[in-house]
Amino acid sequence: MSFNNSLNIFSLKGKTALITGASRGIGRACAIALAQAGANICLVLRPPSNPSQDVNIPSAEWKENEDPYSSSIPTLSLLSALSLNSTGPAKGIHVSSIYADISDTNSVKSVFPRALKVVPGEQIDILVNCAGIQRRAPSVEFPESYWDDVLNTNLKSPFILAQAAGQHMVPRKSGKIINFCSLLTFQGGITVPAYAASKGGLGQLTKALSNEWSSQGVHVNGIAPGYIATDMNEALLNNPTRLQQLNDRIPAQRWGTPRDFAGPVIFLASEASNYVCGEILVVDGGWMGR
Q: 10-289 adopts what CATH topology?
């Protein structure tokens, strides 16, 4: 490959990505990034509490010169606007969505078949498992219901989706699966036993699937975010003492933002990572190196 066309390996034009957890935070940033790289996007959205609620708003509210990562427009509407108004690779991408509660594993079993019906050519090339929840309590008091909710959402549902993706991708000998892990894939954390167990398990699941499917052209990798300024970390962000302790330990001297995952997710979703198999890409400002 010559220098002149080396950046083409990051292009996702003609590919279709199925993404969970894209309503906000890191998942939303990943959806924007993949769209800007040219991928068609299918969002898995939580069913609205009000059935008559319209999650889509007029796409004309976003303009080409505005920063999509800073926009308050709902993700589905924003991606539709990118498709309509962008002058870059996102121009003309196909944007679709389905409803599913990722914490309900029975509901999750229908996600992939339903998604195939609404995407171009009934083909999905990229799966991004980004949906996740957190529950905090001392381990001696940790409710069993918390455990079940976290393990179902963070580990069982990603397995169900990855298995369905594998059944679709392995026969075609092509596909990318990206699981969002955590620093607690490697560490234990405090008062988060279910979260640590789920993310540790997701890291091992990533490697197990990679061992089986890499030879078939299906690349399974993970991304482990460090301390990121999102709603999930609100408890830490609102604790001045703990916040200062964390800031002092991060070599980059700042918390991450959802935008910091644009490059990593494009890399793992594209041909640029075709010899990257079963890896957990840590995006943490240097935290794990301390």
A: Rossmann fold (3.40.50)
